[in-house]
Prior knowledge:
- By secondary structure, the chain is of the alpha/beta class.
- It is built from 10 helices and 8 strands.
- It has a single domain, classed as Aldolase class I (TIM Barrel).
- Strand 7, helix 9 and strand 8 (214-217) form a beta-alpha-beta unit.
- The two termini are 24 Å apart.
Amino acid sequence: MEKATDWTPESAAAIIDQSLLRPNATEEEMIDFCETAIRYKFCTVTINPSYVATAWEKVKGSSVKVCSVVSFPFGLSMTDAKVAEARGAVRDGAEEVDMVANIGAEKSHRFDFVFQDAKAVVDAVRKMNDQVLVKAIIETCYLTDEEKESASNALVRAGVDFVKTSTGYGSGGATVHDVALIRRVVGPRIGVKASGGIGDVRSFSSMAAAGANRIGTSHGVEIVRELRARAV
Length: 232
């Protein structure tokens, strides 16, 4: 089980998806954000689709990848719209896509639709570039444990690479319980991304210990700085 002391600034940064998803973020802020991500060597910058091309131009040549959200934050777009948005993001340089699953379908126990909706996005992305990772967000704060399990199973069947807990815009974010539950359901081969409310080394390391191998946060800088301070 990972403890805070198991993490170096470099190893933590390597699994952080540093996010800037505020609707009022400016292009200047996005450029500064990308420069910071390069400096800290985060895994990705996770951003809204309209900024993918800008971010890709900024991070190309570095280790940082561009991750675009799709149907964010509710997941209620029509499937065709999700497919078009994902294709546009990949066209503009996204190497990862974080798609919000249809939350209403999850709550309605329409898991065949959850599967079909996600598979359409996965198939479209794979046809464009089979190296692009697809993560699916189930928004755990709205679901029972049984719904989390059924949604995760549907998404794994659809071919996603990661199941992600939260958008950060719901009524709650990632919990250790939910990360452990998703990890148990998806097994060792599928990624688990914890996101929402992770702002310090303690929360970061607890999510990793529960089974998350990717952390989504807008506080990556603070986490890395805290680890650097501990190392002094």
